[in-house]
Fold these 2 entries.
Entry 1:
Amino acid sequence: MILNVKEDAECREIEITIRCAELTESVQKLVDRIQNLDAFCECGTEENLMKANILDAYYFESVENRTFVYFEKQVHECRLKLYEVEEKYEKLGFLRISKNTIVNMYKIEKVKPMLNHKFMLVLLNGEKMIVNRHYVPSFKEKFNI
Amino acid sequence: MKKVLGVLNLTFMSFGMVLLLSSFLFSKAIALEFVYQLLFCTFLISVLMELTNQLERKFQIDSLFLLAVLKLFDICIVVFPLGMGAFQFLPLTVGNVICVLAIILVVYTIGFFMLLIDDVNTACRINEKIHRFHEHCKKKHISY
């Protein structure tokens, strides 16, 4: 892939043109990723509303009908329901690994097999998560396996 | 639909394997009645295994031992009362019961380790992809 960056003082907005022979799956992934580079999710309470870059999120977890988003060191309550997170951010590499957890596949450091045919994920911040057996096929699919 | 396909897949795979094994073990020609009975047994085991999977998901059973017991129970509940009882594949004697139980245990253990090897292989392939991705990001100074 050739990457060109041109500086133009007259340019008012960043313009990205992808030149390719065919719109393949990997090109589409690149388009999705670029389109959502500044995707933010609203976190916090009504009084203390803040926006966080979704690509920095490690995982989402639903606890007693409330959704929490976990970053490297902080945790915030997210205003979206877990199924909404799944629908909205699936293209960005977020995948469901259990009934109440959605993980950012780009924040996985390594995968370990478990005796009960589940997988353990070690995230870049050292946290460990379990992929439930029901979600193992879709997890493998996400990595094209 | 996926679950139905899974049940049918397991039914025909196990049916094929047992039929093949029977053709080697028994010198006599296999009766059509035996084939139907065997197909019924394998179908029933597949349905019970799917129900066990549903239970495992619903109650989030993590215990490896409990899962093994449940799966073995699915097989035994069909093989002994139906296969050896009603259909009389083999005479229901203590010797035969021990022998069949041993075969079930060995087949289950082999299946368990084959799945484990497959999981190890899958994890290695995923780790390779993750490693390549992180190396690429490091090289290009991309932060994700």
Note: The radius of gyration of chain A is 18 Å.
Entry 2:
Amino acid sequence: MKFNLKVWRQKNANTAGKLVDYTIDQINEDMSFLEMVDVLNDNLVRKGEDPIAFDHDCREGICGMCSMYISGRAHGPQHGATTCQLYMRKFKDGDTIYVEPWRARAFPIVKDLVVDRGAFDRIIAAGGFVSANTGQAQDANNLPVNKDDAEKAMDAAACIGCGACVAACKNASAMLFVSAKVSHLALLPQGEPERNRRALAMVAQMDAEGFGNCTNTGACEAECPKEIKLVNIARLNREYANAAFASETQI
Amino acid sequence: MTGSTKNTNYLLGSSIGRKFLMGLTGLFLVTFLLVHCFINAMVFFDGTGALFNEYAHFMGTNIIIRIMEIGLFAGLLAHIIDGLWLWKLNKDARPENYAYSQPNANSKWYSRSMGLLGTLLLIFLILHLVHFWVPSRITGLAESAVPGVHDLYAEMFTVFANPIIVAIYVLAQFSLGFHLLHGFQSAFQSLGLNHTKYNALIKTVGIGYSILIPFIFALMPIVIYLRH
């Protein structure tokens, strides 16, 4: 397969970037998008050019590193998949493919397609954890959890923090990410003692990082590789309302 | 959890708080539209306009309604200011746009265009207030056949004699319809009222409301124009 690529190249956070055209040939349709970029980079290195910097790690759809805005979509046109799980057979031979980094004020560009998602780490550090030392894992049924709640918590915990929700949102809002992290703990007894403080602290940190405000367009849900649902955002709104207006908790 | 951010302004000082305000004022305006639509629908039932004038007289003179009108303007103003503020904050959250984007693949155009639709509605609303609210409350209207009752219907009859004005009113209802189509459901979501038991109801009522209310409103200038 042959492709025309328009890839965002940017030296560092302080210089302006631009789209650079590349053509690539003899691509196997069963290659992942990242493997296609590997081949392109191999070509660039052989020509003595600077290879395209991009984030990647596990290449099996669970680490959330491979942030690329491909053909106008977060992680490209494959539903419920990260870039490493996007295969070239999803494209047509001869396609022109745009590849850009996540764009958000809170995700500054480090180089080319690599962005700094440290904002997510700081949101987690603000409250996305349980403080109590729990010791070793207990017997499974020591702490009874409703099956339904366990499922919902598990679905929310599937969030890999990739930032596709921010990238896809017209407001660059991080609400789906924060709502998944708040939901996963709010639904379980271990998260109960700190739930008010957690909601307030994580939302305050989210706002301080410069993410936008959610306007419920649903773009995040549609683009999330782990199919995190909008109901989590509604739950976060409830958690926040409770903590801010009904509880005595202050942060 | 040692959050250094000391923030006790939970309503206006947080993204979720600003959304609460947007949803609450939005739903408040939704209830206003229902009353407004019901009162104005009286023009359909009486070609002389006497029935409509009678209802309009009650709304214009009843002390409780008069006090609520202040609340209505306050709610409307809060909705507009909060909306513009959110639009600005959200624009700033992405300083550099994508060179190539396919937003239609993941969301509806009207859900992304609430600011634009709202601005169109605001422009229409100013025109609408100049047409009816200003003469009925400030500059004064002629008396109808019933002593002491303003002839607001005659004002409608005059305004809607112009087909261009009729067209503007009808087009504005499309803005209203799409604004509501997203806004109605969005308000519930913002207030955290997304629940498997009620979602289907909220969705159905939202779609029905967003089609029916603007349709009835659009019918009014057309019917009155045709009575000429």
Note: Chain B touches chain A through 47 residues (CB under 8 Å).
